[in-house]
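Chain X:
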Amino acid sequence: MASSAIGGDDSGGATVSLTVKFSGRTIPITNLSVDSTIKDLKALLQPLTNVLPRGQKLICKGKLLVDGMTLKESEVRDGAKIMLMASQGLHQGDGPILKQAQTRPISRFRIVDTLGREKTEVPVDKNRLDRWKATGVIGLSDYNLKAIPDEVWASGTSARVIELSNNSIRDVPSKIGCLSSLQKLLLAANDIVDDSISWEGIVSLKYLTVLSLEQNHLTTLPSSLGLLTSLRQLNVAKNKLSSLPNEIGLLTKLEVLKANNNRISIIPTCIGDCNALIEVDVSSNLLSELPETMGNLNNLKSLYLSNNGLKALPTVLFKMCLQLTTLDLHNTEITVDVLRQFEGWESFDERRRLKHQKQLDFRVVNSGAFDEGADKS
């Protein structure tokens, strides 16, 4: 990541320029007022380092800098060099932790081609097309595939479920649209990129209820996604998405949205139109706030927000989302003291504790401790 210069001082007072050393990088900070606090400096560093302010330790000339003190009071001079040390786990997005490498299946067969090169192939089963047509289920996960087999297209309108996860598939051609009865399309852990997937073909699948594109290489989702009005589950986790399209609000039957482990910085306000949502996971992104329209999600039960730069929640969240029982705020800036100020907190707190007690009664969890990340100040 390239070094970035940030700063700016509208006060006309004395300013300083600094360099911050972090993880092998040098980050220049220019024209920062000497009256800025160390906490202000940490806030400026957050989007550049993905380290939450409370996870930052700033050291100058061997001295730990204190949040409430100004640069002037801390004797941080112009040209000073500051070292940033990050506490483990206190990162928004994925932080410095690399995603797990995609696992690829062990080759089933090895064949040598005419040039003497070894290649892998999946054996042809002449009866499997008949089975697919009879059951409507095409199961090809962990098959070492680099392309969708032609036999799949021959299944035509009989195909209801296609499981193609954990392969090396790159192209999803427009002919996917010929499977007009398809209800579930599972393409997790492949090599799909923006230019290799035909959204025109996918959005023509009018009966599609489940779409999984988890752990691919997508950087954007098209506005045409809103045409999948039958969709109930959408999984686009572990990609490289920077945003969600506004048209996601047209998915009024959507119950589960998993968009965790991306680079999303803003949730569109139209998310409030997805009033069938029960579970939303946007953890490990770059969110600093959520739209107030999240309060429109009256059926919401689980909301996962960990590893984001959030400092507050929509003010109506607890008041309006009366089904909410799970709220994950690990590694955010939100503390339980902040939550207690929201209207409806007491009712939410009672619901979540009741759910937790039921889990203990049925021995679903192993520990009596109850921690959703906001219990620690």
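Chain Y:
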Amino acid sequence: MAITLKSGYKMPIVGLGVWRMEGKDIKDLLINAIKIGYRHFDCAADYQNEAEVGEALAEAFQTGIVKREDLFITTKLWNSDHGHVLEACKDSLKKLRLDYLDLYLVHFPVATKHTGIGTTSSALGEDGVLDIDTTISLETTWHGMENLVSLGLVRSIGISNYDIFLTRDCLAYSKVKPAVNQIETHPYFQRESLVKFCQKHGICVTAHTPLGGAAANTEWFGSVSCLEDPALKGLAEKYKKTVAQVILRWGIQRNTVVIPKSSKLERLQENFNVLDFELTKEDMDLIKSLDRNYRTNQPAKFWGIDLYA
């Protein structure tokens, strides 16, 4: 299954996020994921593993497991590179060993002090607060993104972690409209208004953290995952599926793209097998009632400032 983006290209509705995948394990994980059937991979300069992902992709192409045109590869512009969009994109392409990206996203709607292409540590001032560059507007950044499309380096461009107001502004100043807004959304953080706004204006919503972060966000942010919710466990028993599969299926039935992350082979398989059943309207309504407006991914922990405030 795929969603046709505003740009005309098709984006597989289930992808694999590579956040916190490290070292030599990445190659085996990605090769196995491709063999399972994954064709959509979500990367970012900030994940600091584009070179390892590129090595895995090169092997997949060379051995004939898959062709480049069969894959949908996303990566993201880091905050400190808003004034250097072209150079940052070329750096990601070089590391990923690709001639073009299927999708390039503005990772966060904030420009910070430039620390050098390829460096993505948070730019903090002496006070421990994010060193935001107030001379670079998001409109300037977006026109840099549009230039990448003109140059043929990127097929589709989009935004990430933008709210309704920032998304509306992007629609107003853009010549090439954003194809995607990638946001945190899951049963505990449904963001119905933002999802509806984006979809009404032809912007595909991709759900990062679609399972509520699980162990990774508990470790990093101390947050609670919806995977332990009793109502969702009940639905898993009803459909003879795992809780994760029920949550991902809910995301798909909202017409959002889901990009769960897993480093375990059995979970890769499990997360991909979500297209052979359908939740009833009653069960979709039940999950809708679980919304807590609860964000689990909170970068303020590292930045000394809450950008969502």
